[in-house]
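From the shared-data thread, chain only:
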Amino acid sequence: MFKLFQKLSARPTNGESSNGLGLSIIKKLTDKLHGQIKVNTKIGEGTEFIIELPKK
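Structure, as tokens:
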């Protein structure tokens, strides 16, 4: 899911195109900031990505 140019099978909500970079970029930035990404999926409803970053 977080690999470069990885496209998921789900269709975007507004029909927009995808190049498979978004989650990869977010993952790299989150790792550099020593954070975590949590993923919650509800079939038929969608997916929620939660980014947690440490406090200074």
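The radius of gyration is 13 Å.
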